[in-house]
Amino acid sequence: MTAFIEAASPHLMNTYGRVPIALARGQGCRIWDVNGKEYLDGLSGIAVNTLGHNHPRLVPALQQQLTQLIHGSNYYHAPLQEALAAKLVQLSGMSNVYFCNSGLEANEAAIKIARKYGVDRGHAKPEIVVCEKAFHGRSIATMSATGNPRISSGFGPLLEGFVRVPPNDIQALERAGADRPDVVAVFFETIQGEGGIHPMRIEYLQQVRRLCDERGWLMMIDEVQCGMGRTGQWFAHQWAGIRPDVMPLAKGLGSGVPIGAVVAGPRAAQVLQPGQHGSTFGGNLLAMRAGLETIRIMEEDGLLQHVATVGGQLKAALERALGPLPGVKEIRGQGLMLGIELGRPCTVLVGRAAEAGLLLSVTADSVIRLVPPLILSSAEADEIVAKLVPLVKTLLAESE
Ligand SMILES: *Cc1c(COP(=O)(O)O)cnc(C)c1O
């Protein structure tokens, strides 16, 4: 029997434009809907399901944790928090971690750290430099940092204290700093995700690091989407051989269990003191266990190397099949965070791909985004290409 999916749910707020299918279960990189139709997962719940679905080592670990303790409280010590923090410190080369529950929460904490850092240095109204096309979340503060009027329009007044510059333009950043004495931090994504898969150049990352050191600014890098192995390094900025002072994480860290974290280096790690920030759920034990096991399995299975290999293969195959087409502007990204920019809007592809048995998303209207689970096999990468290419060709042959 085919389950009928209502166009709009009568009891949910109408906050999402949804594809008319309902997902029921998953295994590896496959998902089945309530009618039993199979999909290849090219989206991972938006870069969340690092280890795919129903992972044979993650799930038993989570089941075991459920029987121990799901939630304690930050009134008390939590060895699992310490263990995951130690691991993140080891992987990042940074020094201390604050745990929360989502990407925007991690970014809120980063913004508070930057402001407090500035106030501690005598800036009554500290300012943070952010980027055009940035996406940092949908709370009032993170939406104000986000560079997309479509996200913030209707929710003013926005928060002050953000200065916007174009990405990958070190002169613009220098000018912003020269004009504004209260700048205390720079905040951007290593690869802009929602903005359309726009990577920061390696030299730009290195130049920003030098400028932040010269000026005493915090270098804050939002790795909520591009972090946790997605590009083939633990953190995408590591391709540039630099370390930020503040790094928000979330999405892929818990492989599907909600979690957020802010990793801080020595300059920022002691800024927040008892009573200045916190979260009831932050550091929840189930989430901590999910983070620890995700990283452990990634290490045991050599997933970083795997992502570099299979991601390279996927990108090369997309370039071969789509690169020469006149309607394809650019294929960007690294590892398993890839974007195919078309010369026309293509959000219609999300539904058409689902019909063809492939889950993907479109960002910035005209960029097809592929962020599959990091366990994607080489055969599954080929299957993504085989499913996607005819859809793109058909779309490009249609008039707008
Ligand atoms: C998704 C995302 C966020 C927001 O994360 P939520 O968990 O949805 O609040 C912030 N920054 C970046 C770069 C993201 O991709």
From TrEMBL:
<keyword id="KW-0032">Aminotransferase</keyword>
<feature type="binding site">
    <location>
        <position position="280"/>
    </location>
    <ligand>
        <name>pyridoxal 5'-phosphate</name>
    </ligand>
</feature>
<feature type="binding site">
    <location>
        <position position="138"/>
    </location>
    <ligand>
        <name>N(2)-acetyl-L-ornithine</name>
    </ligand>
</feature>
<comment type="similarity">
    <text>Belongs to the class-III pyridoxal-phosphate-dependent aminotransferase family. ArgD subfamily.</text>
</comment>
<feature type="binding site">
    <location>
        <position position="135"/>
    </location>
    <ligand>
        <name>pyridoxal 5'-phosphate</name>
    </ligand>
</feature>
<dbReference type="Pfam" id="PF00202">
    <property type="entry name" value="Aminotran_3"/>
</dbReference>
<dbReference type="InterPro" id="IPR049704">
    <property type="entry name" value="Aminotrans_3_PPA_site"/>
</dbReference>
<comment type="pathway">
    <text>Amine and polyamine biosynthesis; ectoine biosynthesis; L-ectoine from L-aspartate 4-semialdehyde: step 1/3.</text>
</comment>
<dbReference type="GO" id="GO:0042802">
    <property type="term" value="F:identical protein binding"/>
</dbReference>
<protein>
    <recommendedName>
        <fullName>Acetylornithine aminotransferase</fullName>
        <ecNumber>2.6.1.11</ecNumber>
    </recommendedName>
</protein>
<dbReference type="InterPro" id="IPR050103">
    <property type="entry name" value="Class-III_PLP-dep_AT"/>
</dbReference>
<dbReference type="GO" id="GO:0006526">
    <property type="term" value="P:L-arginine biosynthetic process"/>
</dbReference>
<feature type="binding site">
    <location>
        <position position="279"/>
    </location>
    <ligand>
        <name>N(2)-acetyl-L-ornithine</name>
    </ligand>
</feature>
<dbReference type="GO" id="GO:0005737">
    <property type="term" value="C:cytoplasm"/>
</dbReference>
<keyword id="KW-0963">Cytoplasm</keyword>
<dbReference type="InterPro" id="IPR015422">
    <property type="entry name" value="PyrdxlP-dep_Trfase_small"/>
</dbReference>
<feature type="binding site">
    <location>
        <begin position="222"/>
        <end position="225"/>
    </location>
    <ligand>
        <name>pyridoxal 5'-phosphate</name>
    </ligand>
</feature>
<feature type="modified residue" description="N6-(pyridoxal phosphate)lysine">
    <location>
        <position position="251"/>
    </location>
</feature>
<keyword id="KW-0808">Transferase</keyword>
<dbReference type="InterPro" id="IPR015424">
    <property type="entry name" value="PyrdxlP-dep_Trfase"/>
</dbReference>
<dbReference type="GO" id="GO:0003992">
    <property type="term" value="F:N2-acetyl-L-ornithine:2-oxoglutarate 5-aminotransferase activity"/>
</dbReference>
<comment type="subunit">
    <text>Homodimer.</text>
</comment>
<keyword id="KW-0663">Pyridoxal phosphate</keyword>
<dbReference type="InterPro" id="IPR005814">
    <property type="entry name" value="Aminotrans_3"/>
</dbReference>
<comment type="pathway">
    <text>Amino-acid biosynthesis; L-arginine biosynthesis; N(2)-acetyl-L-ornithine from L-glutamate: step 4/4.</text>
</comment>
<dbReference type="GO" id="GO:0030170">
    <property type="term" value="F:pyridoxal phosphate binding"/>
</dbReference>
<dbReference type="InterPro" id="IPR015421">
    <property type="entry name" value="PyrdxlP-dep_Trfase_major"/>
</dbReference>
<dbReference type="GO" id="GO:0045303">
    <property type="term" value="F:diaminobutyrate-2-oxoglutarate transaminase activity"/>
</dbReference>
<dbReference type="InterPro" id="IPR004636">
    <property type="entry name" value="AcOrn/SuccOrn_fam"/>
</dbReference>
<keyword id="KW-0028">Amino-acid biosynthesis</keyword>
<keyword id="KW-0055">Arginine biosynthesis</keyword>
